[in-house]
Amino acid sequence: MLCLAILTAPLLAQQPGGSAPVPAAVLDPISPNVPAAPGEPALPQNAGFPVDVNNYENPLLLFQGEKRDLPMADEENLELLPPISPYLPGEQAPAGTPDKPLTPEELELRSLGAKVAASVVGIRVWDEFGNQISSGIGCFVTKDGVILTDTGLLHPEIAEKVDYITTTGADGTNHKVAGFYLADLVTGVTLLQSETRDTTPLELAPDTDFAQERACHVLAVSEKRGLVLADAKVQMDPALTGLGWLNLKGTDSPGAVGSPVLSKAGRVMAVVGMKVPLQSWMNFALPCDAAAFELRKNRAPMQPLSKLPQSPKLREVANDPEFVAAFATLQQKRVESAMRKLVQLTRKYPRSAECWALLGLSATYLGASPEALNCQRKAVALDPKAGLYWHQLAFAKLRESPGGLPDSTEDREALELAVEQRPNDQLAWLLLASRHVRDGDLGKADDALRRVTLLAPGYAQAHYLQAYVRGRLKDYDGAQAAISQSLKLNAGYSEAWYYQGLLFDKQGNPGEATKAYRNTVRLRPTHPQAWMNLAYAYKKMGRETEAREAFKEHQKRTMKGK
């Protein structure tokens, strides 16, 4: 993965071809749109400072710089399961808590939880030294103890290390797994045999229609809370890059890999295959049709865990001639051809983070932001230790809504994980700084920008954003130093000249402010706010004729925008 990350980083740094132009609100983050006054031009009485815009979005989607990969950090264990009460009986409320009648929805969930509690197990996979190497959820699907779960728990990458598997029921009972019948990486179906042969199975619901979004419940078992049952919505992904996966989202528990997705009647419609480790979660599931087909067949002889499939490993995927050819095609910017190859590769290797990441990158190049976002979510679900994939996820999220703000915290969470695992990622730090500005957390934004200017001191736009943040913090000397550095590095940067004018206005220096605003409108004649501020500066200097002409230009530019 590290080698691949180094190769794909320059691709990400380029603006995707064929995408929509960057909106003016992104390119001009601190200039408000001031409506033109009707009739005879009238000069404003006060230009105001600083312009306080809370929806700043960093304009930098083009960044050149050396990318370095660091050793991967340990994955954090994100515990997202909500408290179980009041869904199941037997939970004791804290002392002094008044009784609260359950709503019909809560009663329905409680009834369903009681119905399926005996059928769901937590699964832990161990190596010969007693180290846990993976964990997830499963459910009994036959009376004699066959457990259905997802193959992600027994990926070929770790299969050779598996020594034994244990299961824990919602009531705390523990059993070992005796062996397995099937572990299919493509369909995701894994059938394990529990040592206990007297179980309560869940019924499968194959041929469920997922064309329209439908309500469901996600089941998981938590050591701290026992059985957890949460509401969610599930729907087939209709995108080209959907490849048969279901989009699964909700506001409570994301469950875990292998969690059954239940209908209101308690039948298994699907199984979670990928868990995106974010607070604003979206998981991906596979319909249970393949599992139902396998259970209808004559069961193959049980095999020991030592026979679990150990191929293809991630390195084998990256060395596949088809993968190498697809990657070379993408490097040559033959994006549509590369995307066709990558779709086929991802069908062949549906649990390869590299395939999903490159497929998402191709979608980004083609301007298909929703598809790119979908793919990058799968990439980070499969390899949450890859900082580059978190970077690409945040990038895709920002491009999904270029005219406004993302509708969740997903981009910020992804950027925080990107810089945690790739501390030298200049662009991720810059995007994170701009997100902190939008969130109103100027201290964190300033800290992030210090890191950017340390890593990339020659980057003019970082100094410009730093000036903006320092101005908002009322550190005008710091703002002046940063904007001067920005203009020293790029004298053709119109927004830096505009902010320089604001600073001179604040200092009571209309002569220098006039020069800065003139440079702004020379470089960007369509900047209405710069024309208005230029008019104001001229008026302060007593140059009424020039002030009136500048304000006429302001009105003309504003009227054209209507």
From TrEMBL:
Organism of origin: Prosthecobacter algae
Gene3D superfamilies: 2.40.10.120, Tetratricopeptide repeat domain (1.25.40.10)
Protein name per UniProt: Tetratricopeptide repeat protein
SMART domains xref list: TPR
InterPro entries with a match to the protein in the record: Peptidase_S1_PA, TPR-like_helical_dom_sf, TPR_rpt
One Pfam family hit: TPR_16
Domain of life assignment: Bacteria
Start and stop residues of the TPR repeats: 353-386, 494-527
SUPFAM superfamilies per the UniProt record, alphabetical: TPR-like, Trypsin-like serine proteases
Keyword annotations of the record: TPR repeat
